[in-house]
Amino acid sequence: MAEAYWQAVLTGGLEVPPDRPLDDLTAELVTMLGDPSPRRRDDLAFPVLATWISNGVYDRLLVGLGDGITVGLRHGIGADGDDTVLRRSFSALVLTEAIGRDNEVHLLDEDVVLRWGDRATSWLLRERDLRGWIPQHGWAHAVAHGADLLGQLARSRHLGALELTVLLDVVADRLLQPTPYVWRHGEDDRLAYAVMSILHRDVVSFGVLEPWVARLGMGISQAAAQYEGTAEWPTPSAANTTSFLRALHVQLALGVRGRPGVAMDEHLFAEPPSGRADLMLAVLDQLRAASPWLFSATTAHATVAASLH
User: Fold this and answer.
1) Residues with Cβ < 8 Å from 199, sequence gap 6 or more?
2) Could you give the CA distance from residue 249 to residue 38 in angstroms, rounded to a whole number?
3) How sure is the predictor about 299, in pLDDT bands with cuts at 50, 70 and 90?
């Protein structure tokens, strides 16, 4: 269909057009998620699909829609530098909306959400094209969209301590993988916010969180031992991991909030996560170790105490 058709849908209040079957409309929109034009992909296809999901248009079809969307996560997987990343990344963003709908109205069985979670995490770990903004094509933002997807999975009633621990491992694996890309478009904040969503569930113990943070610090230290003093230092993955730890520390210190008007988020983020102070200390220890020449000898305990008052 012509772009004007979908523009009319957008300006007409995003109602489902009565002139074509919903299956045909959906298939076209899903194809548009990989369109090189940011106008058709980001300004038309995504908001239409997101609104229809939020409005319950797909409530009886949500399993089929989500299963179909996850196919897009495999589209061209392993490629780097071409247009296929657009379909993968925006498929992740639409899947985020589908899981978010279930989080609000409880439509899906556990096996469905866990299946989608397996496919989503597999994609995020296999994704090689980590570009943020692409000239002429607009946002690709695979890491940011993947982080949003992890954040909605973290909110799911179907994920307990074990599954949330797996999500933390996925975050660490993604951060520590070698990559040529230094994140420049808020990916560190988005990924830290996903972790905050996990922490606010208050089911993952500090006994799990402390070694998880230490693993990130060890990854930075190992890269430093190999490359510090050369033109390759800091490596992109070390720089990204350090930026992530800083973002996580700030979010722990300042607190985060959920989406306005979403009752689940208002409840989830109403109070700081338990063990917040201990986790802040663990993060600060790794930040100090990553840049020992930079920070003063002020104790981490005093720094955390000051940030909590």
Assistant:
1) 209, 273, 276, 279
2) 33
3) low
